[in-house]
């Protein structure tokens, strides 16, 4: 169940679920001869989830004084990496073979048989383990999805022995809230880095309907340099002078922090307005391109989807930059 120990293992559970979903997408694309879709799915998972998210979250475990924590992180990293090599092998045979041989020499194998089961106790994850890896990746079996993992995600991860309830949110939903909170903190810190009041903590209000995010505070703290403090709702909504409150739209998590007066506010406002004007211009050009007659019919669907996402990103950036300008102007009052 997802008790205190489960929260600590949440990133490992999450990345193994995402890995299994990647396997499903890649195998389905290959079966349909859509090789571009297969490589796109692999690239998206490897860069956006494995590298950008899990490896960063695993660093604190790799530095831990607790042997079991280090073993859990290294075992999960090796498990995901060797699975990715097998998935990539049809598309990059020589590179994956070289990496396979190097990993074998370094690790003597790819995963501790107990690591995946500790990360996700409801499933042994046999589909993700190579306890005795073949001499060559060419004769290694191609990964298959572990439906036990995907099924357990749908039924909830915190079983109630008393009434059999399985209404708790799934691992992916919980991680989405945690990662959204982390993004909120990091973006706030980056945007106002030069204006933050020295040694001022970031005060977090996490709604009571998100108990898992509250339990994940140590995980959040390990990923940022500012001091995080939990607060009640009324404490974080106070309209104090030079206090900024940012919110995550989906989860309702809010963060409050104080800004110090700076002599360079006007210069910073001009720099942000310059970025704002550039984003508005880019958004307008993209809109004009997509509104041309016949664009949707003549353009491949994957390109259209990328353009739609880029347009959404520009709109989010414009909204964010406008808010920053307003907040910095308020410091002059």
What does this structure look like?
The structure is a single chain. The protein is mainly alpha-helical. It is 60% helix and 5% strand. The protein is built from 14 helices and four strands. Strands 2-1-4-3 form a four-stranded mixed beta sheet. A hairpin with a 6-residue loop joins strand 3 (243-247) and strand 4. Helix 2 packs antiparallel against helix 3 (35-62). The model is unreliable at 111-130 and 152-168 (pLDDT under 50).
State the main characteristics.
14 helices; globular; 333 residues; four-stranded mixed beta sheet; mainly alpha
Cα(first) to Cα(last) distance is: 51 Å
What is the rounded Rg?
Answer: 23 Å
What topology, given as strand order, has the largest sheet?
2-1-4-3
- Unreliable stretches covering 5 or more consecutive residues: 111-130, 152-168
Strand content: 5-15%
Number of helices: 14
- Overall number of strands: 4
Describe the secondary-structure layout.
Blueprint: H1 4-8, H2 10-31, H3 35-62, H4 67-88, H5 93-107, H6 115-119, H7 147-154, H8 171-191, E1 202-205, H9 211-215, H10 217-221, E2 228-230, H11 233-236, E3 243-247, E4 254-258, H12 265-290, H13 295-298, H14 301-330
Parallel strand pairs: 1-2
Antiparallel strand pairs: 1-4, 3-4
Helix pairs in contact: 2-3, 2-4, 2-7, 3-4, 4-5, 12-14
């Amino acid at each position: 169940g997802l008790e205190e120990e489960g929260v600590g293992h949440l990133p490992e559970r999450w990345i193994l679920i995402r890995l299994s979903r990647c396997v499903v997408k890649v195998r389905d694309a290959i079966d349909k001869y859509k090789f571009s879709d297969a490589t796109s799915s692999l690239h998206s998972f490897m860069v956006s989830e494995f590298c950008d998210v899990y490896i960063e979250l695993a660093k604190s475990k790799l530095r831990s004084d607790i042997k079991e924590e280090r073993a859990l992180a290294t075992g999960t990293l090796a498990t995901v990496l060797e699975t990715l090599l097998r998935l990539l092998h049809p598309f990059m045979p020589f590179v994956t073979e070289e990496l396979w041989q190097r990993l074998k020499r370094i690790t003597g194998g790819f995963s501790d048989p107990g690591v995946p089961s500790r990360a996700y106790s409801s499933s042994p994850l046999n589909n993700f383990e190579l306890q005795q890896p073949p001499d060559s990746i060419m004769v290694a079996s191609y990964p298959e999805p572990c439906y036990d993992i995907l099924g357990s995600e749908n039924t909830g991860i915190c079983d109630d022995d008393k009434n059999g309830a399985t209404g708790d949110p799934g691992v992916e939903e919980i991680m989405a809230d945690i990662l959204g909170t982390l993004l909120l903190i990091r973006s706030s810190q980056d945007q106002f880095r030069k204006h933050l009041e020295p040694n001022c903590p970031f005060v977090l209000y996490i709604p009571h309907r998100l108990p898992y995010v509250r339990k994940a505070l140590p995980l959040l703290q390990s990923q940022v340099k500012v001091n995080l403090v939990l607060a009640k709702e009324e404490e974080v909504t106070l309209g104090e002078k030079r206090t900024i409150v940012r919110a995550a739209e989906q989860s309702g998590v809010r963060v409050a922090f104080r800004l110090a007066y700076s002599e360079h506010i006007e210069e910073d406002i001009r720099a942000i307005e310059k970025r704002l004007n550039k984003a508005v211009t880019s958004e307008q050009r993209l809109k004009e391109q997509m509104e041309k007659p016949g664009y949707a019919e003549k353009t491949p669907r994957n390109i259209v989807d990328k353009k739609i996402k880029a347009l959404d990103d520009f709109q989010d950036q414009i909204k964010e930059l406008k808010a920053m300008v307003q907040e910095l102007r308020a410091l002059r009052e």
